Structure of Reverse transcriptase domain-containing protein:
Amino acid sequence: MTWRDLRQQAGVVLPNLAAQLAAGTWRPGPLRELTIPTYTGKSLPTAIPTVVDRLVHRAVRNAVEPALDARAFADWVSGYRPRRNRNTALRQAAGHLAAGHRYVADIDAARVSDGVDVDETVHWFAEYIHDGACLRLLRTLLAGLPSPVIPGSGLAPLLINLRLSQVDKPLSDLRIVRFADNYCAFAETMAGAEKSFWRISDAMAAVRLEPNAAKSRIRRGANAEDLFLIDG
């Protein structure tokens, strides 16, 4: 079904979908699995749900995102959030640099979509979302995907932030900014930046993540505009 088909048939499709969701009988439809090229030339496995399922994904995101945005995500986290983008991260980074914290532990998380199962993902949600019907729907939705955080799902960006929020928890005492999956911790000395680098690496390891070796480094005298770049 195309979006045009859905618009033409909305008078039938939407009431039926609403009834299935209310009764708890909705089940995900088939996926279109493909590989797409990224900005950097790499291949990205992707799963595209049906247009009806994408409505469900968006409805679930609309329901849970305000609670997660208010309670799960730190103020120093931007990207995949309403009204928070690279400019937000750059302003925060510029503030730390202007305060004299010129050494930066710049760490990019590798493969943040990999190695997550449904039970673990629902557990992350359940820390903040306590409605049983919503959690059951989330479990059904995620079980219909090859992997909960696979690109193509309407929930994938939110789930990346939710996974990385597990990394963020022990780092709140650092001078730190995260944009999407890129962490920058600011320090006055090289030794302080190195300590922050290993603290972030250890926090990633606790949820089976690791720094991208090619994109992670200690920067000295960084310019804010050089941070949080695609493939930077």
